[in-house]
Amino acid sequence: MSKSIGVATAAAAPVRIEFRIVPMRELPPGAAVALDEVDGLIVARIGDEHATVQLCAELEELHRAVTQQERWVQTSTVSDPHRLERPAEGLGIAHVAWERVPAETLPRGVLAASAERDGMLVWLLHEDHASVQLCTEVSEYGRRIAGDGLWEQRWPTS
Question: What is the DSSP string of 23-92?
């Protein structure tokens, strides 16, 4: 099981993860994505040049399964509400990344799939629905979020 550096949120409902397509002007200059996090919610605002609405809808559904099963849980944001704004510390607790793959890698009609094991979660995204820049930026957020233990993986041990 992955190591933990925080205290898990004690909320009754699982954390929600939302993916929203926004005009590029609503993001920092040059960015493909910006994440906003509070206890119980993380919102990924993705520039309209970097992903499709269809991909975002599919990712939201897939992430809902992960959080409802409590395979990944958010640690409390109360003591550090701006924690995502800092660069990764390099603790390497877990690995989360987004990777673009050719359409034929995925089942017909599928835009996203996950590969998960203890200490790792990789999202495979249809290359026609996500930009290289988006995957790079989200993977960098993953180094902070999972790598530094801001979210904890609770992989079954038996």
Answer: -GGGS-TT-SEEEEEETTEEEEEEETTTB-HHHHHHHHHHHHHHHHTTSEEEBP-TT-TTGGGSPP----
Read off the pLDDT of residues 141-156 as tens digits, 9 standing for 90 and up.
999 999 999 999 997 7
Q: How many CB atoms lie within 10 A of CB 97?
A: 19
Over its C-alpha atoms, the chain yields an Rg (Å, rounded) of 15
- Give all strands of the β-sheet with 120-126 in edge-to-edge order: 95-101, 120-126, 112-117
Q: How far is CA 101 from CA 35, 55, 58, 105, 131, in A?
A: 23, 13, 16, 6, 11
Q: 111 vs 67, 76, 106, CA distance in Å?
A: 20, 31, 7
Contact 140, 81 (CB under 8 A): no
Q: Is 112 helix (H, G, I), strand (E, B) or coil?
A: strand
Q: What is the pTM of this model?
A: 0.87
81: CB partners within 8 A, 6+ apart: 37, 38
Q: What is the pLDDT of residues 38-55, one digit of tens each?
A: 888 999 999 999 999 999
